[in-house]
Amino acid sequence: MAGKKQFDMGTVLDAAMAQFWREGYADTSLDDLSRATGLNRSSLYSSFGDKDTLFLRCLDLYVTRYGEKYDAALSRAARDPVAAVRAFFDVTLERIADPELPDGCLVAQSAMAIPVLSPRVAAHTKKALGLQHLRLRAALLAGRVPDRVAEAFAVHVAAVNQSLAVMSRAGATPAQLRAVVGVTLDALTQAPRV
Question: How confident is the model over 116-132, as a mean pLDDT?
């Protein structure tokens, strides 16, 4: 039927997300997105609007996909906050180890590019980055970690999690990444409980 879109939106968004993830927002052109998705530029514009809008859809897809996994990992925090944080890190380490996925993390990569992003994309990226802190803080509070300590560990764990993505992109080995996680988990075992 003429005028009807002949592509799967999920497949196109996955391909665009992978392109942004591999190359970053600033280094991804519309021609790159066209090659990655198989859609011509006019189809990209008519389906998604501008590059910012497509990127935001991809960032939301990424945050939702991995956010659900992080939430599942942290769901046992009330019983055992250290095991929950270990499971949280495992989500990241499994993503990093998956040869089918680009290296690093789309959120971390985007956060590093905030100075060159449009205000709208920068604000959305900051919000996506903040979600990890919020979910970690809530989980640690559920695990009876005192408020001030939960806040400090939430900031720390989120920062370590983002650094794992950066380190993996720079060539750190799985053993090195697990060692970094181990230091954080050791410190968390010493945190007081209420």
Answer: 95
